[in-house]
Amino acid sequence: MSTPTQESGRRSATARATPRRRSAAPRGTNTAPWWKRATRRKPSSAPRSRLHPSSLTAEIVKLIRLEVQPAWQRASGWVATRLEPATEVVSPLGWLLAGVVIVLAVLGGIFGWQETKIAALLGALLLLLAIAFILGRSVYRVTLDLNRTRVAVGDRAVGGMEVQNASPKSLLPVSMELPVGASTAFFRIPRLAPQATHDELFTIPTHRRAVIQVGPVRSIRQDPFGLLRRQVKWTEAQDLFVHPRTTALGGTSSGFIRDLEGQPTRDLSSSDVSFHALRDYVPGDDRRHIHWKTTARTGELMVRQFEETRRSHLAIALSTNTGEYSSEDDFELAVSAAASIGLQAVREQRNLSVLTQAGPVRTETGRNLLDDLTRVQGKARRSDLVDLSRVTADSVPNASVFFLVTGPVATPSELRRASTHVPVGVRAFAVRCGTGLAPARATIGDLTVLTIGDLSELPLILHQVAS
């Protein structure tokens, strides 16, 4: 038996006698078995983007919505068309009563409760009695007449409704409703003998610029509890245009726009209708413009030189970006100012172009101009006054007078940048509209800035500029 000292000596001798095997792998490499070695990925030059699960879910939902939405719209439209007669006749209270009757009848049948059966029977009787109230046929001849279909803000809009019994027998009293915009007016028509008529007059408020839909006139039959309701349409709807307020600018016989234009252009041309002077012939000139009498007298070829003529063309850029206005009243004042200037140009038979961020406005007649300006709505837009000025200048390159109508929030730097898009030689004005502001006049480069706080101040300040 060997001692521990001897045993350790033997082991050391064996270790010295046996040579060490050196691995061919360099230092720092992993010498673990291949099934335990962690595979190393080569670094990629471009980083891989991983889609977050929430983003992936959002993309899937978006694709499903794009595929399902058209089919859902068609299905909902088909269902609404089929259920519309029932939804128009049965009121929400009627649907509630019908549901309660069904639930009570089911509970009474399952548990044998006599009370629920009696309650269900009473509810069914109420529905049957309501049906009796809406049955019947009435023959009316209804006429809806608006005294004027176009009024200005603040003017009185009056209308009338005539109801005639067109049947050979008397008709019981009936209620008729007249939708006026978002509101509804109700009229109680008394009992009418055969061929008898009943007239109703009504007034429509015109406090704000709008296109108000009036009608259609509908007769209403319903039971005392309001479970069922039957409507019969007798007329078509009519549109009432509440135009923006305008003011006369007091153009003289020479013309308001001509006063703003000032002196005619002095650009010389070789082909126009306004004769200016004679000059020496230059190779390339049109021989039709040679003045032969002067040529014969001087012995040298002389040609006519003309002065370019420019026909008056008024361009109005009305900004509908609510970010440039402090309140809704400021925007209404801007619309009224643009309408007043445009109407004056139409009266003087000048060419007129009106543009907003929503597109051009019809200007063939004053009626078309006011109708389209009535439909103009202010919205928060990304397109500002500078973009509108650039689009207007590109759309109306031959303008002789350029108006920028905006609100009091527009800064002088914005007005200056907007004026840079106005062609050279065109007289440009900026009209800042702010309720309560003091009338003022300023100049930013070639741009004349006019500030008005009320529509009545527009004629005076424009007259001062023209003079």
Quick gist of this model?
With 467 residues, the protein is an alpha/beta fold.
Can you tell me the residue ranges where pLDDT is under 50 for at least 5 consecutive residues? 1-47, 262-275
Give me the number of helical elements: 11
Instruction: Give the spatial strand order of the biggest sheet.
Output: 16-15-14-17-18-20-19
Overall pLDDT = 81
User: How helix-rich are the residues, as a percent range?
Assistant: 25-40%
Helix-and-strand structural type:
alpha/beta
According to DSSP, the number of beta strands is 20
**Fraction of residues in β-strands:** 15-25%
Largest sheet: 7 strands, mixed
First-last Cα distance: 134 Å
Please state the overall shape, judged from the principal axes of the Cα atoms: elongated
Q: What integer value in Å does the Rg equal?
A: 42 Å
List the helices and strands and how they pair.
Layout: H1 4-17, H2 53-89, H3 92-111, H4 114-134, E1 140-146, E2 150-152, E3 157-165, E4 174-180, E5 183-189, E6 197-204, E7 210-214, E8 218-222, E9 229-233, E10 238-243, H5 256-261, E11 268-269, E12 274-280, H6 292-298, E13 302-307, E14 313-318, H7 328-347, E15 351-356, E16 359-361, H8 366-375, H9 385-395, E17 401-406, H10 412-419, E18 427-433, E19 440-444, E20 447-452, H11 458-466
Parallel strand pairs: 2-10, 14-15, 14-17, 17-18, 18-20
Antiparallel strand pairs: 1-3, 3-6, 4-5, 4-8, 7-10, 8-9, 11-13, 12-13, 15-16, 19-20
Helix pairs in contact: 3-4, 7-8, 9-10
